[in-house]
Specification:
This protein is of the alpha/beta class. 30% of the residues lie in helices and 21% in strands. It is built from seven helices and ten strands. Strands 1-8-2-3-7-4-6-5-9-10 form a ten-stranded mixed beta sheet, with helices on both faces.
């Protein structure tokens, strides 16, 4: 287990984290909402390790964080116009968009029902890691049913040596989780979060 202060050596910290991800290990990283714990999205063994560390089952698959909208497009069967408009407006930011997954990738995130939940976080450390390591399966850095971590030390208290590298980027300013939206014929909000429903409603009819 290694806790790295990103304010001292950003490039070295990202290098340590990328090495851990490539080795199938878990990494804790700051985001614009809360700290997240992440793994290589394309490694079923690493994703299983992530779910096990949090104490959650495959019925609660992790979202995938990306460095850019182009990465998101490669992970889906296609991005509808309304989803593109939401990305343009709220990415990077606290909006998670659920779309049909690209089955050709061959990944295993859990029981997703053929979908993938995608987000581009508004945090320079997270984006630097995602740019270097590629898309990551990321969930909040806390044990299931425990309070989300606003600092790296809070994450470490809960996850300990289950995580190889902790990227310490100071206290996260968001606190409130991302809003999660399923994009289809209508927009369905499955988690009310940092982006108000009224903002989402500007882009289409919200299913009741």
């Amino acid at each position: 287990m290694k806790i790295v202060d990103c304010s001292r050596d950003m490039s070295g910290a990202i290098g340590d984290a990328v090495a851990a991800v490539e080795g199938g290990e878990l990494v804790v990283l700051p985001t614009d909402t809360v700290y997240g714990v992440g793994a290589d999205a394309f490694s079923p063994a690493a994703v299983d390790k992530l779910l096990s560390a949090k104490g959650r089952g495959r019925d609660k698959p992790s979202p995938v964080l990306v460095a850019c909208a182009a990465d998101a497009e490669r992970l889906t069967t296609g991005v509808p116009a309304v989803a593109r408009a939401l990305m343009d407006e709220f990415w990077p930011g606290a909006l998670t968009i659920i779309l049909p997954a690209n089955e050709d990738i061959g990944w295993d995130l859990g029981e997703t029902g053929g979908t993938v939940a995608l987000r581009m976080p508004d945090n320079p450390i997270a984006l630097a890691l995602l740019s270097a390591a590629g898309p990551m399966a990321v969930s909040s850095a806390n044990l299931t049913a425990h309070h989300p971590a606003a600092t790296a030390s809070q994450a470490c208290e809960q996850l300990g040596d289950k995580v190889a590298v902790y990227l310490d980027g100071g206290e996260c300013g968001g606190g409130e989780p991302s809003t999660i939206v399923i994009v289809g014929d209508e927009l369905r909000i499955v988690r009310h979060g940092a982006i108000p429903d009224s903002e989402i409603a500007r882009f289409g009819t919200i299913a009741q």
